[in-house]
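The protein record quoted for completeness.
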Amino acid sequence: MGSLIQAPPLVFTRIDTPLGDMVAVTDEVALHLFEFHDRTALPTEMRRIESRCGAVVEGTTAASDALRHELAEYFAGTRVTFGARIVQRGSPFTSQVWNALVEIPCGETRSYSQIAERIGRPSAVRAVARANGANQVAILVPCHRVIGADGTLVGYGGKLWRKKWLLDHEQRLSKLF
């Protein structure tokens, strides 16, 4: 009779950024969650991860160390892309939206309706907004780059002042790269 192989636990790491503390949940090779510590949905997101993957322990991993390094470069203005392997679970539609977010170049924005058009579902603007809000990997899956059709800053779980800061930062970065 064989024994069950237990997957290693996911690891919770705090990362200090110019926008405040953020939390990363990683395994040795991938990022599962990256959120601002004060995001209202964070406790629910953590419960969902724990129910799906088991207990999350505090510490660091090779993936969280690499993320910390890449974020330091991003905030210092020397990096616009990230190399982290990202693991998020969502419906095929939600995953399509997240993939469209990653395609938005640094320094640019898109409206919810433009994302809906991009994925071939022009009438699904509200569903795109929900999928955007369900993103659990801030900054790297750049949901902050999605704005209202009229150009206003709307709907950011990390708080609108952070969205503005990120967009301003990326506008400056886009001129360098």
